[in-house]
Design brief:
By secondary structure, the chain is mainly beta. Helix content is 0%, strand content 36%. It has no helices and 3 strands. Strands 1-2-3 form a 3-stranded antiparallel β-sheet, with no helix packed on it. The relative contact order is 0.30.
């Protein structure tokens, strides 16, 4: 960092997250109360998976999120 000395506005954090849009299904998980939670996160089979990429600089500049939906072959 010292060699190149980037400007504060040029240091950014980029993050990606995904989620399912649409109607989910109910899911039940049975666990032993002595053990507690399993750490299991259920996900319904219905819906479309969407990815969102967001970026913000250290200076507070925020780039609008980039939303990626299911692709479609257009040829």
């Amino acid at each position: 960092m010292e060699k190149y000395k980037p400007d504060i506005k040029d240091i950014c954090n980029v993050d990606e997250t995904g989620f399912v849009m649409g109607k989910g299904e109910k899911m039940y998980v049975i666990v032993d109360k002595e053990i507690g939670g399993t750490g299991y996160i259920g996900q319904g089979a219905k819906g479309e998976f969407v990815t969102v990429i967001e970026c913000a600089s250290v200076a507070g500049t925020i780039i609008p999120p980039f939303v990626i939906f299911k692709g479609q072959y257009l040829l």
